[in-house]
Write a structure and sequence with these properties.
By secondary structure, the chain is of the alpha+beta class. The chain has 15 helices and 25 strands. It folds into four domains: about 110 residues, Elongation Factor Tu (Ef-tu), domain 3; about 70 residues, Alpha-Beta Plaits (2-Layer Sandwich), CATH 3.30.70.870; about 270 residues, Ribosomal Protein S5, domain 2 (2-Layer Sandwich); about 80 residues, Alpha-Beta Plaits (2-Layer Sandwich), CATH 3.30.70.240. The protein is about 35% helix and about 25% strand. The longest helix is centred in the C-terminal third of the chain and has 30 residues. The protein starts with a strand and ends in a 14-residue tail after the last strand. It holds the Pfam family EFG_C.
């Protein structure tokens, strides 16, 4: 079931849900359950009474609501015909569901019905713009209009960034223009200001090349140029950061209590693609792992999900082969950015065995000296993968390896802080006892109650002293450089950025798959427009029984604006392109050269 809009008699916009009846008969005025795509009947049936219906007074259940079917319509082109009931197998329109359905839902008279999966669209939203009203007082109308647009268009994405900007994410230039027109004319009905299209990029690293563009082995001059470029990159790294010959970065926190050694390596393309395809599964793993670490009550994982996680792990082991990837899958500490992205953090230092596969073996919290600060390392990794050093774009296909984490000085300082805090607590307790003994004898009841309170306090002293010592130890570690956990986050982030900068860095551009239908007379013009916009033809074939050619090519998203209009103008309307987001592609590094010609 999806949503679309229709104009009623009073020029008011209302939503009509487009639905199909799979079983039974739908009647007007019927009470029914509205089940969202994330509704879990196995969890909800434990909270609901047996044999319940939508007309009963039921407790609140996540992703489930009850409503009454107000109007049923037969869709007759641009017109609607009222219906009293609709049998199974038919398509109909339902009014009055705009408050219960966001994009898609499943309607059922039984709460045991499993919901249908949400609609899957081949066109992935990739082009985004920031919108704001021309008059700031009209911001509520814009917010309401964007909510309506989000309901009406199943492909658009509406979000608010960390900066507070309202952003529309669309599938392409034509889709973007249609969404903006609907927002101005139908939903918000205000004048809006739109930013230039924001083209996403990704940052990655590659292996040093062994051959040049004409498949010739790189000679001494090019090797010298590569070495010179590497030295220039290393000159950007400040003093106090150690750089090994093979790219290992060693940094210490500002207070010198901890030392980190981090290395960056490019992931194989198969692994990067596998991580992108299983982002939802990785997010589910993270939820169960966090509940294990925080000792929260965790629901039993479905056996199908466990099988999927095990299969995902086996695929990673199959694609991560070789000496440098030995035991890498069992050492995966986290994924990033946002703990579900196409980047990996490995832990290869001794004394720490926490991995992302806790949900498979259901291990408890590990007791080690790194346990109190391991989240700081993961947070630094997440920040580093969220914005790279080249142009602050997210990273993709990068593996960070923590080969050393030395916390000996921090442990010594923490133990010294605990001793000082214990002595301080003992001194305070002695002073309190002296005060109790010095109370006057004319207040026996009050003194006994005070004594009882002090005795109760002395019984709770181990836990309170432990908490206070840890808090005071953290306070003493938080010297002029700030809290120690914050120093670890900043050090890990900078170490990851420096580890990237000592490797060959590249930008990854978003690419469209372009399918063009054209006649033989305009093929040359089509090729000219594609080459002008850095497109690359993959395939050309003739459609049987016609004089039309089907051209399949790839085109950068950044070069796609105005592409459809230009190709129609150049071919007089005889060629029509279709653009669908396909993949991310590494852009080659531009190396300038000088061509010298000698005339004899």
């Amino acid at each position: 079931m999806t949503l679309k809009t229709v104009k009623q008699e009073a020029d008011k916009e209302s939503f009509i849900a487009f639905a199909r009846v799979f079983s039974g008969v739908v009647r007007r005025g019927q009470k029914i359950f509205v089940l969202g795509p994330k509704y879990d009947p196995a969890e909800s049936l434990n909270k609901l009474p047996s044999g319940c219906s939508a007309a009963d007074d039921l407790p609140s259940i996540p992703h489930m609501a009850c409503c009454t079917l107000e109007n049923l319509y037969l869709l007759m082109g641009r017109g609607l015909e009222d219906l009293e009931e609709v049998p199974s197998g038919n398509v109909l329109g339902i009014g009055g569901l705009q408050e219960f359905v966001l994009k898609s839902a499943t309607l059922s008279t039984s709460p045991a019905c499993p919901p249908f999966t949400p609609l899957n669209f081949e066109a992935t939203p990739i082009v985004r713009v920031a919108v704001e009203p021309k008059h700031p007082s009209e911001m509520p109308q814009l917010v309401r209009g964007m909510k309506l647009l989000n309901q009406a268009d199943p492909c658009v994405q509406v979000l608010i960034q960390e900066t507070g900007e309202h952003v529309l994410v669309t599938a392409g230039e034509v889709h973007l223009q249609r969404c903006l027109d609907d927002l101005k004319e139908r939903f918000a009905k205000i004048q809006i200001s739109v930013s230039e299209p924001i083209i996403p990029f990704r940052e990655t690293i590659t292996r040093p090349p062994k051959v040049d563009m004409v498949n010739e082995e790189i000679g001494k001059q090019q090797k010298v140029a590569v070495i010179h470029q590497a030295k220039e990159d290393q000159n950007k790294i400040p003093e106090g950061v150690q750089v090994d010959s093979d790219g290992l970065i060693t940094m210490s926190t500002p207070n010198k209590y901890a030392t980190l050694s981090v290395r960056a390596m490019p992931l194989p393309e198969e692994v990067t693609q596998l991580l992108e395809e299983n982002s939802d599964l990785i997010r589910t793993m993270e939820q169960f792992n966090s509940s294990l670490n925080e000792d929260k009550k965790m629901h039993e994982i479905n056996q199908k999900i466990l099988d999927r996680i095990q299969e995902f792990k086996q695929k990673l082991e199959k694609n991560l082969q070789g000496r440098k990837w030995r035991n890498a899958v069992d050492q995966i500490w986290s994924f990033g950015p946002r703990k579900c992205g196409p980047n990996i953090l490995l832990s290869k230092f001794e004394g720490y065995k926490k991995t992302v596969w806790q949900c498979l073996d259901k291990t408890t919290k590990e007791v080690s000296k790194y346990r109190d600060f391991d989240n700081s390392i993961v947070s630094g990794f997440q920040l580093a993968t969220l914005s790279g050093p080249m142009c602050e774009e997210p990273l993709m296909g990068v593996c960070f390896i923590v080969e050393k984490w030395d916390m000996n000085k921090a442990e010594e300082q923490m133990s010294a802080n605990r001793q000082d805090s214990e002595e301080l607590d003992a001194t305070e307790q002695t002073k309190n006892e002296d005060k109790v003994t010095s109370l006057p004898s004319s207040y026996p009841i009050e003194s006994s109650s005070e004594n009882k309170k002090l005795q109760d306090g002395s019984q709770d002293s181990p836990n309170s002293s432990e908490k206070s010592s840890k808090r005071k130890g953290e306070t003493l570690l938080a010297d002029c450089y700030g809290p120690f956990s914050g120093q670890l986050i900043a050090t890990m982030k900078e170490a990851c950025r420096y580890a990237l900068q000592v490797k060959p860095q590249r930008l990854m551009a978003a690419m469209y798959t372009c399918e063009i239908m054209a006649t033989a007379e305009v093929l040359g013009r089509v090729y000219a427009v594609l080459s002008k916009r850095e497109g690359r033809v993959l395939q050309e074939e003739m459609k049987e029984g016609t004089d039309m050619f089907i051209i399949k090519a790839v085109l950068p998203v950044a070069e796609s604006f105005g592409f459809a209009d230009e190709i129609r103008k150049r071919t007089s309307g005889l060629a029509s392109p279709q653009l669908v987001f396909s993949h991310w592609e590494v852009k080659d590094l531009f190396i300038p050269f000088v061509l010298v010609i000698y005339f004899l």
